[in-house]
Amino acid sequence: MRLSLVFYAYLARMAVGTLWALVPVMRMRPAERHLRFQTVLALALAGGAAALYSSAIGDDFRPEFPRGWAAFTSLSGGLPWTLVVLCALCLGINAAYGTYRRRLGVATLLAACAFGLLPVLGTARLAPGDAGWQVAGRTAGGLLGGVAMGGVNDAMILGHFYLMIKGLPLEALQRTGVWCVSVVLARAVGFGLVLLFWPGAQEVLLGREIIWTAWRVAFGFVGPLALIWMTRDALKFRHTQAATGILYVAIFFMLMGELAATWLEFRIGIAV
């Protein structure tokens, strides 16, 4: 398995998740500068993933999928062309908010979030196992994983704006924190359902892959949830600097947990 394949899926999903994480604050004026910054980040992630595709797919992996330029004009394979379209939508969102056309910005952001299902589907089609329910399960898990990464990173970056601009209302940061906890909990529930109902999941994940499973659970679920909850107490006393510092650690945990999940997915074909 190529490491570039893992990072192709990892970056593509985080790009989509970064846009989804902006939905809770997309109508809040205090968060507009933050929103523009995050769309540039999503563009960089999506562009980086698209650039990785050719080396990720390789001649020895899924030979039936198109290569080179054909992959960017085809509806089969990993759909790297959808990441190029996502980059264009990120530019559109940034331009709309930058020129104070907020309704257009909201509409473009929602369109980008909906369109983002396609590149996530493309990453799910690359892993072994082609049954429709398997692809659907990996797509759902990949989307939740991307939104979890994007959400925690979004909260951490948003915290920096509170350090630079005094007097910002805390509602945006609090709302982002609630979003993060909800998504990570949904991701954990999805993992539990996979263990219960995915054929062979318990034997593999609790057997020969137990170390990776423990890493995935500790870094992807337990650590981030505990740390995000700690920010709640910090924000009660308006300690935004402390909350931002805690989120620094939380995003490290989340990124490591989702990297392990993506590695496991491409190694064994199970959505984790």
Features of this protein?
single chain, 272 residues, mainly alpha, Formate dehydrogenase/DMSO reductase fold, 11 helices
Give a quick rundown of the structure.
The protein is mainly α and 272 residues long. Helix content is 78%, strand content 0%.
Structure characterization notes:
The protein has 272 residues and is an all-alpha fold. The protein has one domain: Up-down Bundle (Formate dehydrogenase/DMSO reductase fold), CATH 1.20.1630. 78% of the residues lie in helices and 0% in strands. It has eleven helices and no strands. Helix 7 (132-164) runs antiparallel to helix 8 (171-197) and helix 10 packs antiparallel against helix 11 (240-268). The two termini are 17 Å apart. The relative contact order is 0.14. The model has no long low-confidence stretch (mean pLDDT 91).
Distance between the termini: 17 Å
Which sheet architecture does the biggest sheet show?
none
Seen as an oligomer or otherwise, the chain set is single chain
CATH topology name, in short, is Formate dehydrogenase/DMSO reductase fold
Count of alpha and pi helical runs: 11
Tally of separate domains: 1
Report the C-alpha radius of gyration, rounded. Answer: 18 Å
Question: What's the number of extended β-strand segments?
Answer: 0
Give the averaged pLDDT, no decimals: 91
CATH architecture designation:
Up-down Bundle
List low-pLDDT spans: none
Shape: globular
What's the topology here?
Layout: H1 3-20, H2 32-57, H3 68-71, H4 81-98, H5 102-115, H6 117-124, H7 132-164, H8 171-197, H9 201-208, H10 210-236, H11 240-268
